[in-house]
Write a structure and sequence with these properties.
Elements (H helix, E strand, L loop, with lengths): L12 E6 L2 E5 L12 E4 L3 E3 L4 E2 L12 H8 L5 E5 L9 H8 L4 E5 L1 H13 L4 E5 L3
Parallel strand pairs: 6-7, 6-8
Antiparallel strand pairs: 1-2, 2-3, 4-5, 4-8
Length: 135
């Protein structure tokens, strides 16, 4: 699925999603003829308008630990969108507590919905981070 809204002028955005891959639109400062303004990611990652963390360790929900969410919280978002892969699943409560302790909102959804939601909130100027598992 390709997203049509172009948000790259102000930072990172999600350009498209398919099984096993999410395409990130790069900010204008990183776009060139070689990458054509896009990065194809096949491993879990974290994205904000200002930051792309390509090496976020968990590949599956059952690998997720509180330390992984601590990495996301360090980006100081006001809300985190957690994409759990192809289907909606919930992490253990003690892992999600990382955000509750900081007063950060956490929304959990499948990764397709998380990509769309991230783009909408980022376009509104919200301090949003998306932590996305790629099945």
């Amino acid at each position: 699925m390709k997203f049509s809204q172009d948000l790259t002028a102000g930072g990172y955005a999600i350009h498209g999603y398919s099984d096993g891959e999410i395409i990130v639109a790069l900010p204008a400062s990183e776009a060139n003829s070689e990458n054509r303004g896009r990065k194809h990611l096949t491993h879990s990652f974290v994205i904000t308008r200002e930051t792309l963390v390509e090496d976020w360790p968990p590949e599956k929900l059952d690998e997720l630990e509180a330390d992984h969410f601590e990495q996301v919280a360090a980006l100081e978002p006001e809300v985190v969108i957690f994409g759990t892969g192809a289907s909606l699943r919930f992490p253990r409560p003690e892992i999600s507590a990382v955000f509750a302790e900081r007063g950060v909102g956490l929304e959990i959804m499948d990764s397709r919905a998380a990509c769309r939601t991230y783009n909408i909130l980022a376009a509104e100027g919200r301090r949003v981070a998306a932590a996305l598992l790629i099945p």
